[in-house]
Amino acid sequence: MKIAIFHDYIGAIGGAEKIVLALARELGADVISTDVDMNAIKILGYEDVNIISLGKTIKMAPFKQISACMMFALCDFSSKYDFFIFSNNWAHFASKKHKPNLLYCQSTPVRVFYDLYDLYLHQQSFFSSLLFRLWVMLHRPIYEHYMGYVESIIANSINAQERVKKYLKRTSRVIYPPIDILAFRFEEYGDFWLSVNRLYPEKRIELQIEAFRGLPAEKLLIVGGYAQADSSSTYVANLMKDLPGNIKVIGTVSETELRDLYARCKAFIITSRDEPFGIAPVEAMASGKAVVAVNEGGFLETVVDGITGLLVKPDVIELQNAINIISREPFKYKENCIEQAKKFDESIFLERMKKEIEGAISDKNSKV
Q1: Which of 313, 277, 320 lies closest to 295 in space, CA to CA?
Q2: Which of 97, 133, 167, 312 has minimal CB crowding within 10 Å?
Q3: Which CATH number characterizes residue 283's domain?
């Protein structure tokens, strides 16, 4: 059986890209995407996965997103594959022509259309805000129209499942994202905290910066980048202004380097707004490191408060208190963290996804 996985872009490296490439490797599937950055794929260690590029999008929001949607809607690989998987925000625009199919919901429903609309609107200049409003007003109905051609939806968390029901009025099943547990290790409790995320406004990295600004004895390394035309350049520029000496933003790193940072950090911090799931804290726990996370979104499904870390309000003082507590006894959480991470092992994800694909094909054949 030949399978194709459609994914929006492969540029800025994040959890979604890791999942798509890991699934493609296991299924022997091809990945069909836009803006393919082969260097990013090399950094992730997936050069063996066959990737088909639909071309480059326009590097200006929202024209980047619109052009990606058009590429997916116009392409036709229906005769070359037996099953199709869609991932992320725009790939499902290919769903009308490509069946049988399913959507693995990682950031869908597209958050700037729904729960993050106000946040992104307030990030815009006056002219940009008018364009943003117009884009959402015109594009959201088209987005929902193509969603109607998606035959089944798999959510990456209960949190995402609830958003699918609220905004798309669709049912879905939950399969947690995969973590290659054996790839992570513990070395030491070093002298730095680690933060891993795309540099987007909803990640609320400014909270981390302000928390560590008030804790000069603690160091923070921030790993992550952002894609062009994702409305983040202004946000990142503001983050980089007046960074205190105990905080360093090191951009994108290879998987080997990232695992080394997990292995050597003192602990991990993440502050994303209502994150659908969040792979990075599970990777940190797999490395035996405690996690300070905000008590919302997918973190409620992964981090066990007081056992594998601390869940706190998105507040600088609360973050500082949690950082101080864990810094005193980082070793206290190690075994519980490793055991918790095992619940999200890659083998569980792959087995369940294979069953979903088999079930979808069986249902399709029974209706013929």
Answers
A1: 313
A2: 133
A3: 3.40.50.2000
